[in-house]
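User: Hand in any protein.

Assistant:
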Amino acid sequence: MGRVVLVTGVARPLAGRFVRRVQREPDVDRVIGVDVVEPVHHLGTGAEFVLADIRQPDITGVLARYGVDTVVHMDVNGTPPAVPGSGGRGSVKEVNVIGTMQLLGACQKAPAVRRLVVKSTTGVYGGTPRDPAVFDESTPAKSLPGGGFAKDAVEVEGYVRGFARRRPEVSVTVLRFAHVLGPSMDSPLASYFALPVLPTVLGYDPRLQFVHEDDAVEVLRLAAREPRPGTLSAGTFNIAGDGTLLLSQCARRLGRPTVPMLLPAVRWGRSLLQSTGLADFSPEQVRLLTHGRVVRTAQMREVLGFEPRFTTAGTLAAFARGRGPGLLPPETLARTVDKLAAMVGSPDEEGPQDEEVGRRG
């Protein structure tokens, strides 16, 4: 008998892609996709969809009925899925926190469960002016997130650590993703980068890291399987592509002009963008676009054994190709910036060294 894998949150495109990928694994016999709404995308011929709410005790019966031994919890997200009847932010928080509690309770009662993989975020490190230059997995947050998706993720990880103590025989892996981007990703940061003009915080140019959606699927697949010789899959891992980009560099590569604004004006603009539905510009995203966040990924390579195919710069380039050109051609914008920099005697520092920051540590 091969493995039986249960994946939560399959109404979202990334989870749907993972379901289609994991069912091709030679040691997987069955893949069960779970969500409160039926996905609009195809899950593949080798997967079964179960309409179930992980916030309800019924999820215990699902694990038992199918004899699930591997659980990949991808239903930890910052925004509702783009499908009818999915609810708003309050519903998302319930799924993130209450849903995780119920799912872990079900896993605790299911003796067949031997592996648990949880999708988390580097947002758990918070965002303050006192942050270290680079976070590793053991770095405590200077200030815990006060709300939003990042706070949900902190609570989720706390419940997961409790579960790991109660079921020490279960291999538990937490993947802290930097922002996932790609041609088909729909996220708050993707919505921000899709704006014709990017509002930025005056006086700040934060460093950012990205993960390509293909790499996100691949690292989830790697974490969900039996580890290769010389590697371990249990533990907590930062997941990000090589290198970093400044927000100003991102804007130039996307062909988007920027509008520097005082922080109070950015907060006012955030409310305006949310009310018009152009972008989900949350307070935690404002903090990211003020202070940035860079994580060390040495454990991802040395312990988990994963090497991303896409760098941070490559991920942004793939995203740009999928979204189309901005108001200004990137080449023209770059030449203009170079000329202005030369005039004031401060050459543009975008170059190979930027893509080396945040590598293996």
